Amino acid sequence: SLYKEEADVFINQNANEGPFYLHLSLDALKHTPYRSEDFIGSSSSSRNTSFTDALREVDNLVGVVTEALEAAGVTDNTVVVFAAQSTALASQYDGGSNSP
Description:
Layout: H1 2-14, H2 49-71
Helix pairs in contact: 1-2
């Protein structure tokens, strides 16, 4: 995927330049889960396969980024942060709520 390719290039270009910041804002699991052709039907789940396929793709991307950091030799001086935003669609759950 484009995320994998760009993250790998960015890490390799910046690993020897000092500290760097890579922000991958993945929206694959929001609303209608997105997954590339390589991951369609990849999960063995019988329920919500589009979500579990997309989750497998996100997991794969995390692995690729981790491997790129290891290959660049920067894992001992790297912080990886995972965050998620879960918001309701306006039509979901009786109107949805994005309130805290």
